[in-house]
Each structure stands twice: as C-alpha cells, then as structure tokens.
Amino acid sequence: MPSASLKPHPRKRRRECSSGLTGRSASARLVDPGKPLGNAVKLTASGSTPTESNVIGMSILQADSRDEALAMVEDHHHLHWAEDCEIVLLEEQPIPELAGA
C-alpha cells in the first residue's frame, strides 16, 4: 500500500472535525463511529492469503438518502490528510433470499 505524506492538521480544525461529520444532526446519525482496519486476508475456495487493501477504516451512518449521507461526509477531515485520501460510500442492500421474510 503506498504511503501518503500527511498534511499538518491545525488543532482548531481537529476539534471542529472531531466527529468528522457535517450537516444537520450528523452525529446523531452515526450508528457506529468506526475503527481502523488492517491485516487484510483474501479468501477463495482454495484457501486464504494475506493481501493488500486500501481500506483503512469504517463507520456506519444512517441517512434517509444517498445525498444526505454524502453531505454528512463531504468535508470529513480525512479528506484533507493527503491528496489520495478518499471516502467510499456503500449502501446497505437487502438480501434477496430474505426479502419479505
């Protein structure tokens, strides 16, 4: 995984971004504040092997729409750490076999 040089982060900005969320009642919409992730393992039918991953953390938000979720993280402090920092928004989907159960 490529290492990124981090930009200095002013203390004031750090306090303002402590939750990393913006927008109306965003912190109340935080279902899981998240945690760092690491030690990726690739699992296939033939076994498992250590692998690289650019995913380094996760959080779970509750939003009424994709636009609302995007607005919550549009100015997240991680986006300012380095040029290649990014947030990927994934939407929970129903399991087809359990739909209507």
Describe this structure in words.
The chain is α+β, with helices and mostly antiparallel strands. It has one domain (11-98). It has helices at 11-16, 66-73; strands at residues 30-36, 41-44, 47-50, 57-61. Strand 2 and strand 3 form a beta hairpin. It is flat and about 40 Å long. The N and C termini lie far apart (42 Å). The relative contact order is 0.23.
Short description:
Helix content is 14%, strand content 20%. It contains two helices and four strands.
Helix content: 10-25%
The total domain count is 1
Largest sheet: 2 strands, antiparallel
* Rg value: 17 Å
Number of helical elements: 2
Order of helices and strands: HEEEEH
The geometry reads as flat
The end-to-end span amounts to 42 Å
Task: Estimate the mean pLDDT confidence.
Answer: 78
Compile the SSE list and pairings:
Layout (H helix, E strand, L loop, with lengths): L10 H6 L13 E7 L4 E4 L2 E4 L6 E5 L4 H8 L28
Antiparallel strand pairs: 1-4, 2-3
Keywords:
single chain; 101 residues; alpha+beta; two-stranded antiparallel sheet; two-stranded antiparallel ribbon; 2 helices; 20% strand
